[in-house]
TrEMBL record:
<protein>
    <submittedName>
        <fullName>HAD family hydrolase</fullName>
    </submittedName>
</protein>
<dbReference type="InterPro" id="IPR023214">
    <property type="entry name" value="HAD_sf"/>
</dbReference>
<dbReference type="InterPro" id="IPR036412">
    <property type="entry name" value="HAD-like_sf"/>
</dbReference>
<dbReference type="InterPro" id="IPR006439">
    <property type="entry name" value="HAD-SF_hydro_IA"/>
</dbReference>
<dbReference type="GO" id="GO:0006281">
    <property type="term" value="P:DNA repair"/>
</dbReference>
<dbReference type="GO" id="GO:0008967">
    <property type="term" value="F:phosphoglycolate phosphatase activity"/>
</dbReference>
<keyword id="KW-0378">Hydrolase</keyword>
<dbReference type="InterPro" id="IPR050155">
    <property type="entry name" value="HAD-like_hydrolase_sf"/>
</dbReference>
<dbReference type="Pfam" id="PF00702">
    <property type="entry name" value="Hydrolase"/>
</dbReference>
Length: 260
């Protein structure tokens, strides 16, 4: 049986389930760019309708962190942008449109139109890049024969597109987006569905993610191990209280084949 080794401890498992954003791909590089385009477009459209632009900044609205020059440099791992679904984010944005003077119906339509614009811009730029060490670790996993899956708050079609852009889609035999389940994170539904497709018990898998919602999902499903990845963000460790172990990079993980 493959064994995942972390900080000297050995964990026999049959599969690893990865969150996508902030775990496989650089969160800010993709979603920081996307969210800024979405908010700018929405604000511009309010002004075109002779309404006041958004009066709330993205730090408060989405849970992003900005440098003094305005560049996004971090994110709240337990905030809406990190943990919410696209529908959650559009609801937050629709509420801002309603507060600005649109009807709820108008606000929902505008939010969706601006989402499509941001999606198109992302598609044109393909602004995705893997986290450091991701591809070497995935190759380790492939060589060990361990099963891999993705469980993401993103919609499945978009998730598959991102994995393809990153060139890592072939590593995963299962990809579960939030649109495939009744309840998203932190509920166990995505892990349970992924394990069903892998023909494994939830107790046989490790889960790797960058938010405490991922960790709570793992715990509620009865996963063997919940691994939080904090990266170089020192606040990330404190944002992952339900993790069994927190790592800063994939270099801290190794897969071994247990000979016994």
């Amino acid at each position: 049986m493959p064994t995942l080794r972390i900080a000297g401890a050995a964990h026999p498992i049959q599969a690893i389930l990865f969150d996508k954003d902030g775990t496989l791909l650089d969160f800010i590089y993709t979603w920081g760019n996307w969210s800024e385009r979405l908010l700018a477009r929405f604000s511009q459209q309010l002004v075109r309708r002779k309404l006041a632009p958004l009066s709330i900044d993205s730090d408060t609205l989405w849970g992003t962190r900005h440098a003094p020059d305005g560049e996004i440099v971090g994110y709240d791992r337990n905030g809406p942008l990190a943990m919410g679904t696209i529908d959650d984010l559009l609801t937050v944005l629709s509420w801002q449109g309603y507060r600005s003077g649109l009807s709820w119906a108008e606000a929902k339509v505008l939010a969706e139109d601006c989402r499509k614009y941001a999606d198109e811009q992302l598609h044109q730029t393909r602004a995705v890049k893997p986290l450091p060490g991701v591809i070497p670790f995935l190759e380790q996993c492939r060589q060990s024969g361990i099963a891999l899956a993705v469980v993401t708050a993103d919609e499945t079609a978009m998730a598959l597109k991102h994995l393809d852009w990153l060139g890592i889609g072939s590593y995963f035999s299962v990809c579960i987006g939030t649109d495939q389940v009744n309840r998203g994170k932190p509920y166990p539904d995505m892990i349970e569905l992924a394990c069903d497709k892998l023909s494994l018990a939830c107790s046989q898998v490790a889960v790797i993610g960058d938010t405490n919602g991922d960790m709570r999902m793992a715990k509620s499903a009865g996963a063997a191990l919940a691994v939080g990845i904090a990266g170089s963000d020192t606040t990330g460790i404190n944002d992952l209280p339900d993790a069994d172990v927190v790592i800063s990079s994939y270099s801290e993980l190794a897969l071994w084949e247990d000979e016994q």
